[in-house]
Sequence to fold (118 residues):
Amino acid sequence: MGKVKEIDWEALDKLFAIQATQVEIAGWFDMNVTTLENKVKQKYGITYSEYAEQKKGKGKISMRRSQFQRAEAGSDTMLIWWGKQYLGQSDKLDSRIIEDVKILPAVLPDKAPEKKEE
Fold:
């Protein structure tokens, strides 16, 4: 019979907050995925997936808060990212033709253009 493996539930919640995968978490606690799923079911009466979704959501909120604070503090990168993610902003290329463009032939070093006499 194998050794009974325990879970540090506070550490588990922190691992969820940083978006660790199920395989990573099972490895952290030195147990297989099925054992991890069973432990969560025994302790909380819900599936591993349900529990993970709740806890990972808190981590995402924390990250979103940090990003928002950086944007409010004036980080151009975060302001642009927030604008694109939540305000529907995007980089737009202006494809209008402003004026006619003349394409000149390339001048190769061995074929210099002839000088015109005045």
